[in-house]
Amino acid sequence: MLAHQRSNHDDHVRDLYDRFQIKQTVKNGHVELFGCTKATPRCFGNVINDTPSYLYEGRWTPPCCINALKATLQHVIEVFDFNGVAYWLEGGSLLGAARNGQLIPWDYDIDLGMFLNETKKIQYLEAAREGPVADPDGFTWELAQPGEGQFYRVHYSRTNRLHVDIFPFYANNSVMTKDFWFRSHPQDREFPEDFLTPMESASFLGLTVAVPNRRREFLELKFGKGCIENPKYPRDFKL
């Protein structure tokens, strides 16, 4: 009887959390996440003009989504390290790391760079050329859809599409470049190869990750002067 009552109470609490979109509770130092899992879709729908739906609702990235992104990043890093493949934190993810070691509060994915000639060392990247492939831990590796660009995505699962984007670069006359660019992302641009020789480490989401050296200079090359101290919403969005 008590077990049945406890189960009913737990179900009622979860229903309330669902109704009020509560994604995390903290009690006596214990953190419990509610929301999306590997078995469910992510907590938000479409992303329009680089703006996820929760930002229009006056909310930041849900904590369960951040947890899924961290787990995916950690998994990708482990696969890369096991295969002796170099990577570095890119784009807005590096910007978040430089600001406070966290995901930018409205971000919904994580960006990594890698060397194009090392993609063949990762069996899942090679297999993804033929179609999405799930690895033994349930993460799904795939090539971006035609029209999106020439890069890879690693999803939290086939169902939960929170993901890490992996952009392959190659050196051309000491400049790191690639064969496609996002026209809507002015920060997506070439950069000198010496930012990667050597690479440094930084804290991001509680993980130690590889980053370009002289990261402030690297970020200001891509995002402009003062980008670390002066956050901007996507597409000049205002809350």
Folded structure, characterized:
- This protein has 6 helices and 14 strands.
- Helix 4 crosses helix 6.
- The N terminus is likely disordered.
- It has 239 residues and is α+β, with helices and mostly antiparallel strands.
- The longest helix has 20 residues.
Task: Please summarize what this structure is.
The chain is of the alpha+beta class.
Number of helices: 6
Q: Class by helix and strand content?
A: alpha+beta
Query: Uncertain spans, ≥5 residues at pLDDT below 50?
Result: 1-6
The H/E string reads: HEEEEHHEHEHEEEEEEEEH
The largest pleated sheet is described as:
8 strands, mixed
Helix content: 25-40%
Shape by Cα distribution? globular
Radius of gyration: 19 Å
Mean pLDDT: 86
Instruction: Measure the end-to-end span.
Output: 48 Å
Strand content: 15-25%
Number of strands: 14
